[in-house]
Amino acid sequence: MVKFWGDRVIFPRKLFALLKIAKVGSQISIFVSLGAYAYIHEMGHLFAARRIGIKTANAIFIPFVGALIILKEER
To answer: Which of 16, 38, 40, 58 is most buried as measured by Cβ atoms within 10 A of its Cβ?
Structure first.
């Protein structure tokens, strides 16, 4: 730690470590938001299909791809 005009200054190594931690938090937030968006999106497909009378199985989520909704009957 170095004092500069009475304030504390963090060494570059510690600053880079703090920035890496902040990036991890942002990345976690992005993936959680993306997962929530994909869930709501796929549930919309499921809700719409069931609303018009198409029988479906529950949604099966596939990581990094999306979801699979299997129709139980042909229309």
So the answer is: 38
